[in-house]
Each structure stands twice: as C-alpha cells, then as structure tokens.
From TrEMBL:
Metal-binding as UniProt keyword: no
UniProt family annotation: Belongs to the adaptor complexes medium subunit family. Delta-COP subfamily.
Any single GO CC term annotated in Swiss-Prot or TrEMBL for this entry: COPI vesicle coat
One Pfam family of this chain: Adap_comp_sub
Regions annotated as coiled coil: 154-182
Keywords tagged on the record: Coiled coil, Cytoplasm, Cytoplasmic vesicle, ER-Golgi transport, Golgi apparatus, Membrane, Protein transport, Transport
Keyword Membrane recorded: yes
Protein name per the record: Coatomer subunit delta
Localization in the cell: Cytoplasm; Cytoplasmic vesicle, COPI-coated vesicle membrane; Golgi apparatus membrane
PROSITE patterns registered for this protein in UniProt: MHD
Amino acid sequence: MVLIAAGVFSKSGKALVARQFVTDMTRARLEGLLDAFPKLIGNDKDALTRQHTFVETESVRYVYHPLDNIYVVLITTRNSNILEDLETLRLFSRVIPEYCRSNDEKEILAHDFDLIFAFDEVVTLGYRESVNLAQIRTFTEMDSHEERVFMQIKEAQEKAAKQAMAEKAKELKRAQKEALSRGLKPNYANVQALSSLSSSSAPSAVAEPIVSRPSQPAPRGPVGGGKALKLGGKTNDEDAFLNQLRQQGQTITPVAKAGLGSSSSSANPTPAAPRVKREAVHVRTDEKINARVSRDGGLESGEVLATVSLSVASPDLNSVSVQMSNQAPAGGAQLQVHPNLDKKEWQTSSILKLKSNGKPYPVNNDVGILKWKQVLTEEEQLPISLNCWPQESSDGCQVNIEYTLQREDISLQNVRIVVPLPTSTAPVVSECEGSYEYQKTRNILLWTLPVIDSSNSTGTLEFSVPNGHSDHFFPVQVGFQSENLFVPITVTDVIKQDGSAVQYSVETSFNSENFEII
C-alpha cells in the first residue's frame, strides 16, 4: 500500500485540508489530482445512486467517505490493497470528530493544523502506522509519563530543601536568642557551638546564613577588581524571567529580604504587617483543615488541626496564665495541653497555667501551649461544600459548580477554587459569582471570591468546553482563609501569678491546607 495524500473536501468540491505523504511528486501534480476529485464523483444525485465509494483513473485511486457536509478522501496508487485503504479511511474519519465539534467548513478550517498533525501520526512516508485513536491523541498532545514523574520528583526535592532550610534557620535563630539571653556576643562561633548543627543534616543546595561579626573598621577603598558577586542582588535576566512567568499566568510569591536568623520560607510566606497590634503577651491560634470529598457526595476523610502558641515580651511575664473559653461541643475535638502546664487546672477551669515546678516561658519566642484535633465524619460538618456537575453532550461538556456556606458563623476570605480542564481547551464561562481566570499554561480555570459569608452563602460557576469528559474536571481544589475558628476555643483573659490582669493581643487564623473534591 502506498498512500499518496489525504484530504478533506466540502460538498461543493472545495479542498479544505490536504496532506501529502510521498516526496517524489511535485506540487503541481498533487494540485491536479485534488482538483480532479470533485469532477470524478459528480453531483449529489450521482453520489446517491453510486454503489461504491472509490473512483479510479489511469494512475491513482480515490477512496472517499461522505461525512455530513464533507468528504474524507485518500489518494492511493492503483495497486494498493483496497481493504487496507478502507480501514485507513475509517481511522481518518474517526480522527476528525476528535478535534472538530462539527463537520462543517468553518470548524475544519479552524482546526486544520491539528488535523494535519494527526494525519502525520496515521501515515508515514505513504505507509500506515499501527496506531489507534487513543495513541494519536497522546502523540499529538506530547504527553509523557516520564516527564510527569520527573517533575513530581523535582517538586518533592525542592519542597524538602525548603523545609530543611526553614528548620535550620529556626534553630540558628533560637541559638542566637539563647546566646543573647546568656550575655554572649552573637558571633558565628557561639551560634555554631550552641546550635550543634551538622552540615550534613541539610541539602548541599541550602546555604549557611551569614551571622554578623563584631564591627571592624572597614577599608576606605574597594579591594580586588570590584566585580565580585553580590549576595542577594537581582540580575536583569532574573527579572525578565519572572515577568515572563507572570504574563503566562503563574503566581510568583515575593520573597522578603530576611534578616539574621530569619525562619521565613516561600511555602508559608509571612505577612508584611501583622493583622493585630502585638502586646507584651501575644496569643496566636493557627487552625488548618484537610478534607477529601467524593464528587458523588460524601466525606472520604477530614480533620481539623490547631495549635495555640504564646509569646511574652519581658521576663516578668514569663509565668502568666491564660484563661480560655471552650465552647466546643463535648466529644467534638481532642484537646492536648503542653506537658509543662497543669492539666488538672485546665480540666476544671479551662486555664492554661504552668506547673508549680514548671519552666517559665522563654522571652520573645512562640511556645505551643495547647493543640487540638477534630475528626470530621460527615460532609455537613465542612465550612463550605461544592456541588460539581459536569454533563457531557455531542457539542462538548457543560460544567456547573455551586458552593454553599454551611457554617454561617465563619466568614471565608480569599476563596480560590481551582478546576482542571481538558488539554488545549479554552472554557466559555456563561455565569460566574465573583471573578475567574483561565490559566493556559497550567490548564486550569481559577475561580476567586474575595469573601464568602452569610450575605452570599451560595454561588454558581457555569462554563462549557468543546471536548472532554467528566474525569477531566477533577480533582477540584478549594483554598480559603478566615479569622473565625472552626473549633470555638478562644482567649478571654491573661493574668499574672499575683492575680493582676495583663494586656494581651490575640491573633486567629483558619485556612485550608488540602481541601479537594475528587
């Protein structure tokens, strides 16, 4: 079998797409063969009475298949196997609906290059390849399982390096504070001796933080050639690269310039300014939710984890007691206090108080004093629920997503709902509460709402895509932040050992760590 060319013609005889598979034929010769096809098959009346779907000339054979408003045509040599020609023609006919929503002239012309690339996967140098429709789709999308595995490994390594860097920075900062509390100079030798860190405990890519040495008179003139590398300096290439990523829809987290012993990391950026004014005693509660919800309804797994930490600014406040208000339902959350605190005092009066022989709180350092865990068993316990409803049709897929705020006592801020999309598909949004953004490079639709509270407890996003099926739109990931706690355990008072009240500040945060509909 030698297949010379493949083409798509309109019923009026216009050549819409044509692809040549042999190299020993001139362009003029191929155009002559294409122009001859409409004349050979005649008009529509002749096509209705004809009992076959091929036409032969002295040199070539035309094998064609009518498909609604178009003809799919193969031009082969006369001595080719007609049965193999018909099998190849059927595969070409199945390729067209994969890339075109309808079989009209406008749609064919809009996806002409996609069809040409698919035709090249079916035939090579005039001979058919042993491929099926799924393989053609994979080859044209250039999807590589090895590449996905490599990227996952690379992301895991980067995440581990960032975590190790953050942990080491925290230890160095803690060692420096301990040196200052003992009256030692915060030089590099003291920090190294107190921290007792091994260089092998962190990846080689993590650089040692630079610790300031005692001040020395600086030289008046520059030493060396004057072109040494400047630490922390941005180059023009880096700025251009970041700007290009932003234009493609990537979110670039700004990295703040860290001082000595900074423990900030890019995974958990620290806000530029605190939300509340910090007093001499500051109590912070960080609460996170993890949930996996089935697309058909029902909670597969869910839990809420929280940590309450205390920070005091002076030594005369390092033994304060914190009065808590525990409004959580009985048996709902599993509470655990720090071993240095009096558990009986907590169980009887909900007071977080040091034991009589307990160590005082360190100064200017966050110390965890209480934590809790609540396991979620029902979907109705979640603060927000999503109903994702993709519906397939001959024209593509219609997707409706509706959110419902189930805990109206919680106000959610900066809500981000990420919906994956089929490859190389731009959605058409017909209804949206809030705002949306189609990120082509990540192949997602990002739905954002600044606030979800009792005033807008429900909302809908509706969009359509020309192809794909229901599995393409999962898992849907939900992210949010809130100042309202899921488990209502709050601070009511802070007192000294002598019973006098202390001015304090409270900071609460509740956010989603891993919330998805699968």
